[in-house]
Amino acid sequence: MASKSSEAPPPAAEARRNSILDAAVKQFGRHGYRKTSIEDLAAAAEISKQGLYLHFAGKNEIFLAAMQKYLDDCMALVDKALGRTDLSLVDRLTAALDAWFGRHLATFSPASFDVIVTGDQLSPAAVEEVKGAFMKRIAGALAASPEFTTSGANRSAKEVAQVLFLCGLTWKEGSPSPREFSERLRLCVRVCCHVKK
């Protein structure tokens, strides 16, 4: 989303805006897009409805900004996990996938899954861009790892990243616990990368 001014907002205003967006993610995550009202968003952010309108034009703008911040925060966690040189490839990839998909599992309830459809409808290009960026990071980590390049895998790093992404999408299936989901991710990584441990 483009800012209304070329000047950066004051730190206090930026902190307040981020606080509103974090509260909005939690609200959308619990109740979904359709069942969340402006009043709900204002109450969650501990701000008046009028105060909310000082920061955002309406529900769609809040939703898009909140989801963008949420995805940016997820990507920062992915980068941190992939940058852990003290971990094995399996551990790094599992942590990165968990930082992305596991965070979805912790944030969104089954009642809120309409946020996915809404995001796809309101900003399809942005959704595809972030998916592509995530898979590119996973593929880059694979391609740079001797554990993968010498493993005998008969697929490219890009293909394996795509398969791991598809495996990660199972976060919505069967309501797994965070531990079960992490174990599921680890198995997918080991199989896809031809790594034994």
Description:
The chain is mainly α and 197 residues long. The chain has a single domain, classed as Tetracycline Repressor, domain 2. Helix 1 crosses helix 2 and helix 7 crosses helix 9. The chain is elongated, with a radius of gyration of 19 Å. The N terminus is likely disordered.
Brief write-up:
InterPro entries: Homeodomain-like_sf (IPR009057), HTH-type_TetR-like_transc_reg (IPR050109), HTH_TetR (IPR001647). It is built from 10 helices and no strands.
Identify the CATH class.
Mainly Alpha
Strand content: under 5%
SSE succession: HHHHHHHHHH
Structural class assignment: mainly alpha
Number of helices: 10
Low-confidence stretches: 1-5
How many whole angstroms does the radius of gyration measure?
Answer: 19 Å
Q: Please estimate the helix content.
A: over 70%
Biggest sheet overview: none
The N- to C-terminal Cα distance equals 42 Å
Summed up, the domain count is 1
Write the layout of secondary structure elements.
Elements: H1 11-31, H2 38-44, H3 49-55, H4 59-82, H5 89-107, H6 114-122, H7 124-143, H8 146-149, H9 157-168, H10 178-193
Protein name: TetR/AcrR family transcriptional regulator
Organism: Ideonella azotifigens
Pfam families: TetR_N
